[in-house]
């Protein structure tokens, strides 16, 4: 009798080229979402782009039929006895964006629903043709409108940038046959190990199904890269956070991936240098009915300042501005002993923040803003997502974390420390959704009206 592993190996050889395959069962049609490029003086032109769903959410089935390669949080051991065979035997397929995932996109907006049927959350990228649209942020500003009024405790409606390959890894990893058009190549500063495919191969080796998440697990490999969290938010709290990395690319095991007790040993700064107004002493600034009223749509402006005001200069500050009901609102100054009052992210702020909170200063160790700025030079891919948190219940964003701590910076929002459990979030906020719209990108001062 032939063993399952031998059968799978023979099937892999039968495909000729070993690689992450593209399926043909469901036609992939990328929903439209445009943005605007702006020049000094506020002259803006429309760029016609689309969105594409991340590969991790897609149906993964056998190339020779419709057998699931992945069900719940486990791989099929016949089709996926190892990373290479799984990549040859399995194909990613097209997506029903609205029906399966609750994603609505048209014009210049995209709306992401937390729960659609059995699907939870989503992650999409801006794509132009068959490549991700890359943004070079230095000496530029990035602006968008957002409505987080429908996001309660435990949900994160996020907009951010990551240092992904524009083609999703097609050129770098020849075994990747799906590419950006099917949402491959994701990476971020958390070095995620829950990705089913990394670097053109499956992540089945060492895969352990999650105890708390029926749809997820972790393999031996993670996918690391620099990350700029422009917007992590719900209606309670928001954070602006750059995450630097010493190495961009796959990691293996706890040490280089920074997993478990090795959090501060990995390639990337997982904590980042975050600016959350509530966390740093301004509790009346953001939230329902506050200075920036999260019950209403708002415009969010983020500026990337360089030392010489050029795109080749050293990144020296990251600034945040809001516009709401026609009023320009500057980010509030920090109000914490030990941190010099500031409303922007600078190396000084990052060092002082870590000193007063007692958190390891990984951001400075990995190069600070200057080092992070080098990762911005190649251009970064734009990500929109909505998710709940099976690891920490999103308490790090909107509650007190660690729970029970009275350290400076532990209080991050008004949510109860018992909130955010995914089972509660998904049952009580099943219709929660976030809408991003009116994205603009260009010269400093070009994407919003300052008066």
TrEMBL record:
It comes from the Eukaryota. It catalyses: Hydrolysis of (1->4)-beta-D-glucosidic linkages in cellulose and cellotetraose, releasing cellobiose from the non-reducing ends of the chains. One of its GO terms (molecular function) is cellulose 1,4-beta-cellobiosidase activity. One of its GO terms (biological process) is cellulose catabolic process. Its EC number is 3.2.1.-. Keywords: Carbohydrate metabolism, Cellulose degradation, Glycosidase, Hydrolase, Polysaccharide degradation, Signal. It is an enzyme of class 3 (hydrolase). Residues 1-19 form the signal peptide. CDD domains: GH7_CBH_EG. PANTHER family: 1,4-BETA-D-GLUCAN CELLOBIOHYDROLASE B (PTHR33753), GLYCOSIDE HYDROLASE FAMILY 7 PROTEIN (PTHR33753:SF2). Belongs to the glycosyl hydrolase 7 (cellulase C) family. This is Glucanase. It comes from Aureobasidium subglaciale (strain EXF-2481).
């Amino acid at each position: 009798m032939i063993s399952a592993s031998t059968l799978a190996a023979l099937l892999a050889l039968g495909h000729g080229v070993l690689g992450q395959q593209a399926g043909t069962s469901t036609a992939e049609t990328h929903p439209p979402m445009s943005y605007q490029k702006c020049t000094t003086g506020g002259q803006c032109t429309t760029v016609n782009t689309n969105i594409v769903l991340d590969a991790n959410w897609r149906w993964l089935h056998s190339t020779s039929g419709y057998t699931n390669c992945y069900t719940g949080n486990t791989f099929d051991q016949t089709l996926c006895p190892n990373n290479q065979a799984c990549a040859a035997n399995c194909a990613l397929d097209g997506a029903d964006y609205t029906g399966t995932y609750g994603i609505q996109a048209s014009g210049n907006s995209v709306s992401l629903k937390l729960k659609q049927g059995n699907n939870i959350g989503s992650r999409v990228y801006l794509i132009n043709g068959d490549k991700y649209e890359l943004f070079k942020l230095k000496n530029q500003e990035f602006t968008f409108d957002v409505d987080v009024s429908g996001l309660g405790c435990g949900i994160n409606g996020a907009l951010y940038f990551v240092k992904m390959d524009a083609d999703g890894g097609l050129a770098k990893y020849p075994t990747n046959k799906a590419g950006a058009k099917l949402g491959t190549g994701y990476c971020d500063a958390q070095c995620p190990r829950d990705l089913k495919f990394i670097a053109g191969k499956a992540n089945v080796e060492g895969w352990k199904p999650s105890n708390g998440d029926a749809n997820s697990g972790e393999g031996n490999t993670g996918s690391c890269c620099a990350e700029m969290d422009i917007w992590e938010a719900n209606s309670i709290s928001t954070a602006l956070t750059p995450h630097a990395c010493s190495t961009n690319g796959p990691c293996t095991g706890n040490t280089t991936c920074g997993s478990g007790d090795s959090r501060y040993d990995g390639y990337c700064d997982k904590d980042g240098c975050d600016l959350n107004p509530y966390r740093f002493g301004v509790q009346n600034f953001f939230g329902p009915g506050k200075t920036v009223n999260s019950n209403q749509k708002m415009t969010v402006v983020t500026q990337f300042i360089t030392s010489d005001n050029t795109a080749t200069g050293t990144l020296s500050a990251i600034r945040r501005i809001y516009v709401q009901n026609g009023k320009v609102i500057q980010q509030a100054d920090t109000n914490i002993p030990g941190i010099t009052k500031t409303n922007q992210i600078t190396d000084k702020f990052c060092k002082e923040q870590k000193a007063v909170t007692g958190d390891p200063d990984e951001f400075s160790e990995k190069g600070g803003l200057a080092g992070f700025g080098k990762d911005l030079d190649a251009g970064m891919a734009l990500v929109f997502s909505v998710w709940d948190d099976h690891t920490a219940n999103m308490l790090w964003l909107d509650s007190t974390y660690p729970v029970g701590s009275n350290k400076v910076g532990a209080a991050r929002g008004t949510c109860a420390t018992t909130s955010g459990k995914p089972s509660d979030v998904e049952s009580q906020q099943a219709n929660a959704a976030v809408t991003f719209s009116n994205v603009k990108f260009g010269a400093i001062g070009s994407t919003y009206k300052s008066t």
